[in-house]
Amino acid sequence: MSEFKLRVATRKSALAMAQTTMVAEAIVQANPDLSYELVSMTTEGDRRLDKSLASFGGKGVFIKELEVALLEGRADIAVHSLKDMPAEVLPEFKLAAVLHREDPRDAFVARGGVDGCRFMELPAGARIGTGSIRRVVQLKALRPDLEYVPVRGNIQTRLSKLAELDGVVLAAAGLKRMGLADQVTEFFSTAHMLPASGQGILAIETLSPLRRCEGDRSKQSIDTLLARVNDTETFAVAAAEMAYLKALNAGCQFPVASFAEFVDTAATADGVRELKIRGIYWDENSQKLLRAEVLNSVSLESPDLIAQSRAVGVALAQKIREQM
Fold first, then answer.
1. pLDDT, position 50
2. 234 contacts 99 by C-beta, under 8 angstroms
3. Which of 84, 103, 106, 166 is catalytic?
4. DSSP per residue over 127-182, as a string?
5. Chain mean position to CA 77
6. Pick from 231, 230, 238: which is nearest to 261 by CA?
7. Maximum distance among all alpha carbons in the chain?
8. Using CA atoms, how far apart are residues 84 and 63, in angstroms rounded to an integer?
9. How far, in Å, CA of 270 to CA of 273, rounded?
């Protein structure tokens, strides 16, 4: 294939730029005749840091401008943190590929960093910063005696709040990708704190084949380029987690979380693996944090792998509904 410059849409934040560059470099490494350029922009979610995401549109506020760039032909692909995407992309678009999942856990950074007080050892009344209601309901289940303070902004902005807070909770993946893992006081086990659905996964979005014009430079090549970097197992767990959100009609304005993982160490001869997914949902009516788990077999070699994985997520949502 002749030289092809891939135009990659990204948010302008330092983390987004670092993550997008990571994705673009992986694509170039897998496709030696390729080069890339970043098409950076500021999204509504980046501009409106004074309000909670739930108050002005939820997850879509981080991806809308990037999707417009795809529609207008200013970019060939867009890179998102999967947890920032809605449970189902619009018909105009396609979730084309995902990279291998980074650490999905949440991380606690105390004042004092690695030498700070661990979460369960904090004194009553300690003030903890987080902008996620999903985190708050789980943290309250662990420590109802602490005060949880809304905090938004980029990683450095939230870390700077340690001057006035006793600790902040952030995604481990972002800290690691920014080279800040050495500031983490402790990582929350997924047994105690489920991450956001899709947390730690970088997703590549393209136009749907239905929206690609005849002769479009992306029509013949983009899917082939991206297939070479797609991580099949990560795509399967992503499909399960996002299907859970869709089945519950839940977004970032809901205290909901799920985490899927393959729990066996190797596939059988026909590629069968055991996929486990755990989920939580805060039920306002009962004022209870509902929990459920599903374990099903899926075949990594089946053309229906994504459909099988989504079915696991839907089954988890049904178990949650039965408790409401």
1. 46
2. yes
3. 84
4. EEE-S-HHHHHHHHHH-TTSEEE---S-HHHHHHGGGTSSEEEEEHHHHHHTT-GG
5. 17
6. 238
7. 64
8. 8
9. 9
- The whole-number pLDDT of residue 252 equals 58
* DSSP states along 263-289: -SSS--TT-EEEEEEEEEEEETTTTEE
> Which of the pair, 55 or 29, is modelled with greater confidence?
29
Provide, for the chain, the percentages of residues in helix, strand and coil under a 3-state DSSP scheme, each rounded to the nearest 5.
35, 25, 40
Given pLDDT bands bounded at 50, 70 and 90, which one contains residue 74? very high
Element (H, E) at 16: helix 14-30
Query: Encoding tokens for residue 5?
Result: 């410059």
Residues 6+ apart with CB under 8 A from 118: 108, 110, 185, 186
- Establish whether 84 is a catalytic residue: yes
Please state whether 145 falls in left (phi above 0), alpha (psi between -120 and 50) or beta.
alpha
Residue entry with tokens 């099949």: 232
d(CA 34, CA 233): 25
Helices 305-321, 232-248: inter-axial angle, 10-degree rounding: 40
pLDDT tens digits along 85-127: 999 999 999 999 999 999 999 999 999 888 899 999 999 999 9
Say if residues 75 and 69 touch (Cβ distance below 8 Å): yes
pLDDT at 54 over 80: no
Q: What are phi and psi of 108, to 5 degrees?
A: -105, 125
Kindly report the average pLDDT of the chain as a whole number: 90
Cβ–Cβ < 8 Å for 177, 15: yes
| Residue among 224, 169, 179 nearest 199 (CA) | 169
Question: Which residue's structure tokens are 């998102």?
Answer: 80
Number of neighbours of residue 263 by Cβ within 10 angstroms:
10
CA distance 169 to 9: 28
- Please count the CA atoms within 13 angstroms of the CA of 108 that sit on its side-chain side: 24
Instruction: Give me the helices (H) in 204-259, please.
Output: 222-227, 232-248
